[in-house]
Amino acid sequence: METQGKIPNNINCKFLNLGFDILSRIYVLAQNPNLSAVSKFLYEIGNSTSVQIEYNVLDKKQRVYFFCAPIGDCDMVIYKKDVLAGLIRRDILKYHDYLQLFRIVVEKEYMDLVEVLLAGSRVEPAEPYRDYINHTTVITSESDLYSVKPLIDINNRYSFYQTFSGNVKLFKLIEDAHKIQIDVINEHRMSPKKLIEKTRYINIHEKLSKYTYILFLKGFIENLDYKMVDYVLERIELEEQDFGECLNNAIYAGNKEMVEYIINVGKNLGFGIPDDAIEAGISSNNIYIIDYLIEMIGNLNISIYDIMEYGVNSDNVKVAEYYLDKGGKVEYNNYQFLKQASSMGNRKILNFLVDRINLSDIDSETKKELLSVKNIEFFSRLLDKGLDVQMYHDFLYFYDPEFPHEYLEYLQRLLDLGVNIYANESSILKEAVRYNDARVIRLIMKYSKKPHIKMESSFDHACANSYIEIASLLMNNDKSLAVKCKDMIYDFAIEEKLECLELFLKNGADMNTKQGRSIMSDGIRHGNKPLVSLLLRYGVEINYDDKNLFEYACKSRFYSVVKHFLEIENVSKDSIRKEFLKSCFSNHYEMLSIILNYSSYNERNILFSLSYGLPLNIVSRNGSKRIVDLFLEMGTVISYNRKIFLNACKFGYDGLIARIVNHWKIKGMPDKKIINKGLLMAVPTKNNKIAQILLEYAKGSKAKILRQNTLDELLVMVCDRGDFYSAKKIIEMGSNIDSIGNRTLLKVFLLENQNILNLLIENGLENKKIDIINFFTACKNGSLIDIQRLINSGVDINVCDSYGLKVASESGNLETVRLLLKNGSKFVSYLDIFYLADLSEYSYDDQDFGFFDYKNLYNYRVSL
């Protein structure tokens, strides 16, 4: 769907009639223009001003505050100027909504919207108020008098953010707001008599308060606008607290000249520099401001040590540099600042100070305080400076999963320096197991010269959570874990944690117990192949006394278990026969092969002879040549009956057919009808062996076995599939060449089998049928003379559903198509029309060919 342009912003879209639920969902999806599910049209609608405005006002009654809706991109919805303007025009917002709107337009400096909001007013029922002149309280009813109030109270502390950008024009608008006067009759259609003010023209704003002036003053200070700073200072009386806030603003602005200027303003007013000024200076990271502040507060006895203390508390390296530049020492008061930074964990200044000390000069207690900061980077710095690993092992050797790569390098360094990895009962190793940290464990094991003690709990944790690699590492370190935790293996087997179970079995755990054999039996009953295979591989014995297990093993196809049962000959003959017949019905080759291979010659004969040769009857009708061949190989008993023979012909059991034919040669031929039917069933299977065997038998027989109809049908079948040798043999046996129809001739043509065609011609194929083959060939090759000659000789031009026209169209020969159509060739299907329509695209010109309009034909195809 395409649009003619952007959706207008100044009109409401009918799309809004869908309702809020649907609209809001579309609006959310339309946030991403690349979303395949959202069309360009919906995206434009979702981002149009009218939809955004309606989205925010339709559900307004359900929300306490206007901007609490959790849907959409806040910047896109709230901060677009045209959306804000539309919301103001709707004039349905509450007072606190207008306050928030005003804060946004002030922050974004939308001057025209600021003017609109400042000029806006509202009428509210008057509340009881105090008459201070007459010292009375005036009570008014809700329907009595009203009061006019501005939409925005410029002196409300919630109307503004903490500071302004210092925009002079914006400041002038707000400062002059008290001059705005409205006509209550025109503005609110209300008589002045209903107002407390009793006048038609009302100034809705009071003059700017000192609080608001100071907010603007802070903005002008940060903007370094000295002119406006002076302008504001002339209009307010600055108090000491206000001066301190303004000074901090100047310090945070990072401009030394503005700091000097504000300090001079304070001096003129008799204000001293506040105590927190130096902290603000330190936070500014401006050395010049810090220097100036120290110079100015020198009379207050603030030393460089006090400054340094501020710097340490705020983790400020700039202050530390300043401290050292002024002659301060890291060693001051027995490394006071170093200890202070350590206790607070302030790493920046800690690293800065450590780089400037000699560790050998620090006492042991101070070093321990430094090591209380668990940080890889800091500890590496201490190691660089020569910290004794052995002496402070308990502090340095810890586990930190938060930074795995850095920790691995740190641990490698500790191990190279000879740290005791067995300390605290291998606590780091246990922590690494808990966090599934295989890299750390591999590294520790690389340096382990003996088993780690008391690791049973950690090993149990690793196995319970399937941390196989970790469990394997622990087991390799301490082979005795397989014995110490041997009771776990049964739980692993029951819970099917086979990797853990195999880990135990590989390391010498023995499960060939009564409980283990019971688990094996349960695994066989429930068809748990992985468990049974694992237990067999590690020598767990099968409970052969449980006679039902053989049946379950066969059902679940546990071939190895079945073999075990058959090897020890601990299965009843009836059970074997029962499963043998089941496998015959289900075509289960593997099971049949196992039973037959593990049975003696006599036992196999008994199995094959069940119910007078029933097994072969079953498998022969199931269509599995593989099983039939297996039975023949194993010496199956064959009941030479009608069903066996027909199934063999149908499914291509050439080995079985050979046995049956040999039996006929000895015992005599069965009913001729069966052989005729079998041959007709065998030829479509494309198993030439069966056809050859039966044809040879029929040909060598003294009696005439094959009927004429059978021979004729067989000839058509073998010609259809291009079997030259079978066709030759069938013709020799007396098949009638005239049985070959047009469809068979077409198939011979399509197969391009010249041998069969020659065979048919040599054996008396009619000339008119030969002409059909020649006609197809001429149409394909585009031989117009031959086509016309054959048509004149009487060939059916529409033979085989007008195949001549079809092959000419497919070949792309337009002249041939013209000739055939002029001589009466007809279309049989739409597909033929499509071929011809495609062909018309390559015609030499756009003229009509008399009786047929190729262009219209092509258009007709497209319309279909």
UniProtKB/TrEMBL annotation:
<feature type="repeat" description="ANK">
    <location>
        <begin position="515"/>
        <end position="547"/>
    </location>
</feature>
<keyword id="KW-0677">Repeat</keyword>
<dbReference type="InterPro" id="IPR036770">
    <property type="entry name" value="Ankyrin_rpt-contain_sf"/>
</dbReference>
<dbReference type="InterPro" id="IPR002110">
    <property type="entry name" value="Ankyrin_rpt"/>
</dbReference>
<dbReference type="Pfam" id="PF12796">
    <property type="entry name" value="Ank_2"/>
</dbReference>
<keyword id="KW-0040">ANK repeat</keyword>
<dbReference type="InterPro" id="IPR051165">
    <property type="entry name" value="Multifunctional_ANK_Repeat"/>
</dbReference>
<protein>
    <submittedName>
        <fullName>Uncharacterized protein</fullName>
    </submittedName>
</protein>
